[in-house]
């Protein structure tokens, strides 16, 4: 029941307002129209200032009209017309002078533009028409059934604009686009004849007044992640302003700036990245990406293809780690390899910046060195060879040049069965240790020392003999040449006697 009362009150208010608005100071007020149409009735009610009454024309086979004669020549500036929906093929309003010449004529439509058409539903402002003495409404080719009528509730003209208290309709189809620092709004304006423009409010403060041709507006320099109240009102030529349409729009969280001072410290087995975080309340964390940089041949660069996995971005980077700190160490690198790292900033909504990149190359793996090698025997008589370093990579044991065992360097010992141990020409153990780095780099071989001893003779018998042979290979030519210089005379006499006797040597 409450809703019915509210609706009735609203309807009554609108009706009273329209009546007060429409029918003051009209030039035709109280005048009765003259008609040449068949079956026209109650034409005096067309100008009685009452929208509940009407005059009507029942039947017009070809054309018809009714008209008013003014007392004096007038300058007409606006027209009020209220009639039922079009029942025929056309209507016209003509303004004539005292000699019955047409000064201006308008067709009748739902929305009058004041230039060529007059609205059938209210006021239409027109350019002033001077010397008007006669006003005619023409009907063309109307053929109504007995139950139909052309109903004219009110018709009047004015020589000055009537007092207007009603604002135009509000804008419709309101839309908006928001960024972190700007909001753009879009809307459709009303079709009211006297609509003049819109006013834009931001948080109840008027920020712009637009003419009736404008259907959009943009707010700039706004605060990110902030809710704003936007109101759009319409106003007419009299200055009446509507209540407006209000909406709230929140600006977005911005993409935070990239990290700064990105640095990379490369070792053969790790790369440490460090950076400075952006100073932003919307910063959440940094995201680290990596890709291996490989030198491609000329033909690969032209015809080669790139395979991108689901975990690899379009630019070839693979996500590695996320942290809200200022450094990260990559322990999955290999020596002698060039890597490119990209670090992006991620805001609290998960949106990333473009990121900054840095390229670095890991050095070669250091050559491993065996130190602290010693030999002991356990209770079974087996030989236990130990070392203090290295602790990473592997250690290989050779006996008489053949591989006997290979263990993780971190164990720091190798056990040799007593029956497997061999000795060389000098009585030393014919066993050699070779350290191998994590990435395959071999270090210098070390002989297994005697029990309780240290490494006094770094060469095995085989190594010794190979060294002696190498030395002789270099020295032998010089020794032969020395013998020639020392014993040249006996050798010369020997060959001379041999040739003197016919090349035969006495036995």
UniProtKB/TrEMBL annotation:
This is Fibronectin type III domain protein. The keyword Calcium does not apply. The chain crosses the membrane at residues 468-488. Residues 167-254 form the Fibronectin type-III domain. Keywords: Membrane, Repeat, Transmembrane, Transmembrane helix. PROSITE patterns: FN3. SMART domains: FN3. The keyword Transmembrane helix applies. It comes from Anoxybacillus thermarum.
